[in-house]
């Protein structure tokens, strides 16, 4: 119970840092603020690559945030703002790369691989029973005899345990 | 069966070859260098003061090349590194316009006074708005602008003598830039 409280308190700390970058902006509506929050998470900083502009402290990230804020207040939709940034910085700016021939591998690669893997597993599974059937009658008899022995040992063991 | 097995066993090898190809292609290229989205497009619209004379304003229409547009600032150490090369190119007659990016005008003027200015004039983009429209993500950056005012090439990072000779000079000739051995510059001055 005590640990639960502790974890809860730590989570609150995390929330504090995540919001810190947004507090400086005043929005017309909570919806706009929510949109801004999504946007700064999905836009990548071209300067300090591998950070989104929400996390980044770079001057350029601040500039992009300011511009995004201005565009939101002008009533632009998030996809319009993303397109606006892509026009300036290229596809790199967004963590959601557009579906194009160059990015097909990125978008569909995992599914193609999953289907391939599934097919391989399926064909192997379908082939397995045929292998299992190839047991000669003598072997079959031996297996039965061994199983019976095992049963006897097990039931014997259990009786000892219950004593 | 043996054919199937052969295929199955060669699969990792094929995958390996594909990976080698992609990683091999990445070797020697700087992943932090992004392609410009503005290539072969006119400069984005702007209206900004001239650093040397803030009472005058420049617009995109005033930047007609062939001219080299150099993005720099006094807070940028790499710009200091490339400054002597720019001075030499200017001395040879390559017309250059500076885009003083997110800088303090006083500091920038002082810098040019001490170090010498390779620029015909500077655009003072104090807030960095024009830089953002241009897709600038770090200084120094250099753009080659052709006679129609279109961006024909972008170089990210320091211009060294090698960079100029191998990358920019061929492009410069392609857009009809003057041979630097001829002395007179022909960059369009700021509109008065």
Give a description of the structure.
With 163 residues, chain A is an all-alpha fold. Chain A has 6 helices and no strands. The longest helix of chain A is centred in the C-terminal third of the chain and has 30 residues. Chain A is elongated, with a radius of gyration of 31 Å. Chain B is α/β, with parallel strands linked by helices and 192 residues long. In chain B, the strands form 2 sheets. A 5-stranded mixed beta sheet of chain B has the order 5-4-3-6-7. Chains A and B meet through helix 3 and helix 4 of A and helix 4 of B.
Shape category of chain B: elongated
Q: Write down the overall mean pLDDT of chain A.
A: 83
Terminus-to-terminus distance of chain B:
83 Å
Rg value of chain A: 31 Å
Biggest sheet of chain B, in brief? 5 strands, mixed
Shape of chain A: elongated
Q: Helical percent range of chain B?
A: 25-40%
Write a compact overview of the structure shown.
By secondary structure, chain A is mainly alpha-helical. Helices cover 71% and strands 0% of the residues of chain A.
Layout of SSEs?
The complex is a heterodimer of chains A (163) and B (192).
Chain A: H1 2-20, H2 30-42, H3 59-73, H4 78-89, H5 104-133, H6 137-162
Helix pairs in contact in A: 2-3
Chain B: H1 2-26, E1 47-49, E2 57-59, E3 67-72, H2 77-92, E4 96-101, H3 105-115, E5 121-125, H4 129-134, E6 141-145, E7 151-156, H5 161-174
Parallel strand pairs in B: 3-4, 4-5
Antiparallel strand pairs in B: 1-2, 3-6, 6-7
State the main characteristics:
heterodimer; A: mainly alpha; 6 helices; B: 192 residues; five-stranded mixed β-sheet; 7 strands; disordered C terminus
């Amino acid at each position: 119970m005590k640990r639960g409280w502790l974890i809860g308190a730590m989570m609150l700390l995390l929330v504090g840092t995540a919001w810190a970058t947004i507090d400086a902006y005043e929005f017309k509506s909570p919806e706009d603020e929510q949109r801004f929050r999504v946007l700064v998470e999905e836009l990548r900083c071209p300067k300090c690559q591998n950070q989104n502009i929400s996390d980044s402290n770079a001057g350029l990230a601040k500039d992009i945030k300011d511009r995004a804020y201005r565009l939101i207040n002008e009533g632009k939709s998030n996809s319009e703002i993303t397109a606006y940034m892509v026009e300036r910085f290229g596809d790199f700016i967004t963590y959601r790369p557009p579906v194009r021939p160059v990015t097909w591998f990125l978008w569909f690669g995992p599914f193609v691989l999953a289907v391939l893997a599934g097919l391989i597993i399926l064909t192997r599974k379908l082939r397995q029973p045929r292998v299992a059937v190839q047991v000669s009658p003598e072997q079959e008899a031996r297996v039965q005899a061994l199983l019976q022995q095992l049963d006897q040992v097990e039931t014997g063991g259990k009786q000892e345990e219950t004593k | 069966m043996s054919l199937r097995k052969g295929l199955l066993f060669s699969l990792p090898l094929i995958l390996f070859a594909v990976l080698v190809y992609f990683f091999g292609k990445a070797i020697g290229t700087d992943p932090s260098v992004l392609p410009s989205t503005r290539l072969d497009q006119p400069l984005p619209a702007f209206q900004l003061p001239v650093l040397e004379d803030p009472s005058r304003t420049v617009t995109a229409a005033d930047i007609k090349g062939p001219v080299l547009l150099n993005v720099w600032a006094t807070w940028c150490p790499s710009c200091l590194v490339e400054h002597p090369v720019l001075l030499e190119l200017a001395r040879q007659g390559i017309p250059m316009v500076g885009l003083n990016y997110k800088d303090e005008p006083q500091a920038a003027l002082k810098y040019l006074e001490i170090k010498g200015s390779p620029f015909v004039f500077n655009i003072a983009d104090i807030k960095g708005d024009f830089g953002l429209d241009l897709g600038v993500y770090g200084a120094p950056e250099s753009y080659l602008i052709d006679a129609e005012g279109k961006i024909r090439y972008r170089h990210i990072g320091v211009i060294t003598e090698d960079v100029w000779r191998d990358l920019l000079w061929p492009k410069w000739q392609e857009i009809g830039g003057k041979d630097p051995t001829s002395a007179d510059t022909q960059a369009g001055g700021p509109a008065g």
